[in-house]
Amino acid sequence: MTTPAIAAIGLRKSYGDKTVLDGVDFTVPEGTIFSLLGPNGAGKTTAVKILSTLVRADGGQARVAGHDLTTQPQAVRAAIGVTGQFSAVDGLITGEENMLLMADLHHLPKPEGRRVVAELLERFDLTDAARKPASTYSGGMKRRLDIAMTLVGSPRVIFLDEPTTGLDPRSRHTMWQIIRELVSGGVTVFLTTQYLEEADELADRIAVLHDGRIAAEGTAEELKRIVPGGHVRLRFTDPGAYRSAAATLGGAVQDDEALALQIPSDGSPRALRLILDRLDATGVEADELTVHTPDLDDVFFALTGDARVPHQTNQPEEAAR
Questions:
Q1: 6, 33, 138, 315: which one has the fewest Cβ atoms less than 10 Å from its Cβ?
Q2: Does 144 lie in the same domain as 91?
Q3: pTM of the prediction?
């Protein structure tokens, strides 16, 4: 088995009387996006600071890129990159000078540093603005430059701490594409966010952090199935087929006007097969089948109570004919 890019067991951290992390566990496979989801103050940034060696945990163990946080912090730092929600870009110098400074900090030879910087500026569509003061950049450009600076050292693991906070929708979608491209190149991304849609769009696995603990973890689809409200809706055009299906699927909620049935279901392939097999056994076929599953908003509120996150438009229901 391959070594996980990140593995944490029982991470604990308190500030005075406030417990921020209370025994947090998770494992992140290489080349994947792991999202730590939670409201402001949930402890997401603290987790990033611990895993990037900026803060020492009060308890627990963790390995990043195969290196132990406590005994091999320098090796961890050499293997990672960190980009926070607040840009580390120096606005008094140009974008290119920011990049070259990072190359110097990574002790790259001058010719190699200039080559790497030129390639990254082109990759992040910053070549035209490279010799302009970074203070003149838009928020989205500064965030792209921030990530480009992080990549100068060719990190294997990148921590993105709320990277799209404050960005407009277009810049946010551009950032999502950049993150996807990083992972397709073999990089592992640890993403913290308070945006439900962002976690849903990007993450291979999501952990919901609440009161210092992982309240739930899984794929977006797995998390959506842990809260009630999912159902399958069958619609018919033939009244006779509708009545036969209603008799066959006992307990279904009937809508006689629309000739539709609503059956509680988690929307899994197995559950759908069971419903369709029962209909097939009686020779009845639905004209339309629609799967309704809870979205991450429902999951988040179910797991965190009154916690609130920025509103995101619900995703359209999934339909099959």
A1: 138
A2: yes
A3: 0.77
